[in-house]
Structures are given as C-alpha cells and as structure tokens.
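We emphasize that the prediction below concerns an isolated chain of 208 residues; any contacts that depend on oligomerization or on bound cofactors are therefore not represented. The input was used exactly as deposited, without trimming of termini.
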Amino acid sequence: MEQPQNNFQYFVRGLSGTIGKILLTLVFLVLIALVVVGYLADGTHLSLGKKERVSLSPTQIQSIRNIGQWEFLSVSDEELVDTVRYGFFGDNQLARIYYGTLRIGIDLSELQADWVTVDGDSVSMQLPDVHLLDDNFIDEARTRSFYESGKWTHADRERMYQTAVATMNQRCLTETNMQSARENAQRQLSQLLSAMGFKRISVRVGQK
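Result of the prediction step, given as a token string:
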C-alpha cells in the first residue's frame, strides 16, 4: 500500500468498530438465513451428484438488494492543492488543503438473480466487483485555505476541487487497495456462512 508523503496522512481501516456496519452485517446474515431456510422448506430434494440452484423469489432478491452499499475498505487522505495566477503587477497564489475518505465496497443492488447456490453443506456466492461507493468523498466542511493572495472566483476554486478529487482517486484507488477490499469481502462473508454451518464455501467477488 502506498504511504503518504510529506504532510499527507493516509491510512486504511476495516469495518470493525462501528455499530451501523455491525447491524448491516447482521441484517445480511438474517437475509441469507431466510433464503436458505426458504429453499430447504420448499420441498426440493437434492439428488446424489446433482447440484440444485437456489430459487429466489423477486421479494427475497429485492430485500437483499435494498440493503444497498456494503463498505469493505475505507481510505482517508489529505491533499494540498495550489495554483498561481501570473500578472504584470505581481503573482497571485492560492493553496488549499482538502480532506477526504474514499469508501470501497460492493452495491448489493447489482446482485444477479443467480448470485447464490446451495448444495447440502456447500454454498457458492457470486458478488459484484468492489468499486468507489460515493464520488462525493471530500469533506468540504474541513477544506481550508493554506495560503491565499489576490482575488479568486468560484470557478477557480471548483477547478482546484476537481484537481483534489482526481489526485485522491489516483492515490487511493490503487489495485492493491481494491484487492484488499475484495479479500475483506470474501473473508467476512465466508465467516458468516461458516457460522451458519456451511462446510464448503466459495465466495467470488467480481469474477465469473
């Protein structure tokens, strides 16, 4: 993982420690349990050597999709962006510090109809690939001018804002961080399924 340079602070943290994320995990666990129980109670018999696909009702699929976004990695960063306007009577300079937290995870609304299959004590899941969950990740309330001389317009500040966005995307959305988010998703879901009693578990993220 890339390290911050100079006055930049860069760190990665997992899901643990927030009540909201714990509740989200519990909700997802309950929904999976309902899917499996509904499947087993449906009267479907599994034949030896034959794998049956879970039949999800539209209501069940919509309930899971309604959970929405599930964060598996967050990356915080701060960037110093400056610009100079050259003039005949002197140069004007504006430097601003931007703070942002980029949340990487999956969107459960993107689940396909055949995202989970069950065969006895075996379960297989196919999840959408991880991506940036929110493009508006800069905390504008914390943005402040580090140095300012001359007069600057809203358009000038907007260009600096977009520069900060692009810089944070490049710095934080590395393949290393994306892969770390995928591994977090696989590990957490595998732990949930193992706790439900499944012995053979396959969780794929962004792979067919």
